[in-house]
């Protein structure tokens, strides 16, 4: 019983740490602030254009995809600066690849956004 309780307490603590990490990300990273702003704009657009339930699910999925990869990219940047604060070609490569992942997700999100909203104007 004690084991089960400590399991639940540990899970709750982990959720708390993850929540703290999310707040740090939103408070300190300018790129994620821009993404939050875009997420608000497309959410408002979703209501204005009355997008379908499926379109909402896809839109929310895209927002989650971009923001979560941005979070991982930020963590990689912090880790890279921590393990090697000096300028190094490999650190630059690691950071560029991590940023490339965000770029891929963002391009996909823009294309998906086009599929959702362009027909509303045509
Ligand atoms: N220590 C380093 N050694 C080599 N190149 C680096 C180093 N730090 C950064 N760079 C290069 O500069 C670019 C920008 O790095 P930086 O850490 O400022 O990321 P950023 O994309 O500006 O991040 P942010 O999301 O915080 O705006 C990297 O993608 C990399 O090409």
TrEMBL record:
Which regions span the lipid bilayer? 32-51, 97-118
Is Lipid metabolism among this UniProt entry's keywords? yes
> What membrane topology is given?
Multi-pass membrane protein
Q: Which UniProt keywords apply?
A: ATP-binding, Cell membrane, Kinase, Lipid biosynthesis, Lipid metabolism, Membrane, Nucleotide-binding, Phospholipid biosynthesis, Phospholipid metabolism, Transferase, Transmembrane, Transmembrane helix
Query: Would the keyword ATP-binding be found if you checked this record's keyword annotation?
Result: yes
- Which molecular-function annotations from GO does this UniProt entry contain? kinase activity
Where it mainly occurs, coarsely classed, is membrane
Top-level taxon: Bacteria
Give the UniProt subcellular location, in the record's own words.
Cell membrane
The family this protein is said to belong to: Belongs to the bacterial diacylglycerol kinase family.
Listed name of the protein: Diacylglycerol kinase family protein
């Amino acid at each position: 019983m004690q084991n089960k309780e400590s399991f639940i307490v540990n899970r709750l603590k982990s959720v708390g740490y993850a929540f703290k990490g999310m707040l740090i990300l939103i408070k300190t990273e300018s790129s994620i602030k821009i993404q939050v702003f875009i997420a608000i704009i497309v959410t408002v657009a979703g209501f204005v254009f009355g997008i379908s339930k499926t379109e909402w699910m896809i839109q929310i999925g895209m927002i989650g995809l971009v923001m979560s990869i941005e979070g991982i990219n930020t963590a990689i940047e912090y880790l890279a600066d921590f393990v090697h604060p000096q300028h190094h070609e490999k650190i630059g490569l690691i950071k560029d690849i991590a940023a490339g992942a965000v770029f891929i997700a963002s391009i996909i999100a823009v294309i998906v956004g086009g599929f959702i909203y362009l027909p509303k104007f045509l």
